[in-house]
């Protein structure tokens, strides 16, 4: 018995596969004897369904400078000393980073790279070594950027990399008198 027959016996659907007359196939393959006229082409284009417009999509915008106010009883406090020496004591949540807090309160912290550790415009100086020691060590990326910071000190950090914790409650940070914005090759 041939292999085809064997298959056909086991798969009865194969036997009932409808045969198409040769004429139907040649009809489908038939090429139009003369090229379509310009009017026919225009008509066909007008009647053909329009291509679907592709929807524009983008990943969610990372919003900097937005922080939620802390619930009563859960506040941690950080004080920013601005370039004029004015103090701004702010109640924050654990986990808020200093860049977001500063921007949410209209303090002058540029954050040119949006908190991705690629500039030094969020440079802050922790005024008390005690708090500085409570922070996790800066990683290599942060250290590289800090090396470019204007007026680097022993207790300098990048604000976008410092998240508030219970241990940092009461911390005071100074905003340096100048920052260096390497992204815009600009000094401020
Ligand atoms: S905002 Fe650029 S490093 Fe912090």
What does the secondary structure layout of this molecule look like, with pairings?
Blueprint: H1 3-10, H2 12-15, H3 22-29, H4 38-47, E1 76-81, E2 87-92, H5 98-104, E3 123-126, H6 129-134, H7 140-146, E4 156-158, E5 171-174, E6 180-181, E7 186-187
Parallel strand pairs: 1-5
Antiparallel strand pairs: 1-2, 3-4, 3-5, 6-7
Bound molecules: FE2/S2 (inorganic) cluster (FES).
Secondary structure: helix percent: 25-40%
Structural class assignment? alpha+beta
Tally of separate helices: 7
**How many beta-strand elements?**
7
Main sheet characteristics: 5 strands, mixed
| CATH class (first level) name of the domain at 76-187 | Alpha Beta
Q: Tell me the series of helices and strands, N- to C-terminal.
A: HHHHEEHEHHEEEE
Give the quaternary arrangement of the chains. single chain
Gyration radius, rounded: 34 Å
- The H-level CATH homologous superfamily of the domain at 76-187, spelled out, is Beta-grasp domain
* Stretches with pLDDT under 50, minimum 5 residues: 13-18, 59-63, 184-188
Strand order of the largest sheet: 2-1-5-3-4
Quote the average pLDDT: 79
Distance between the termini: 90 Å
Q: Which compounds are bound in this model?
A: FE2/S2 (inorganic) cluster
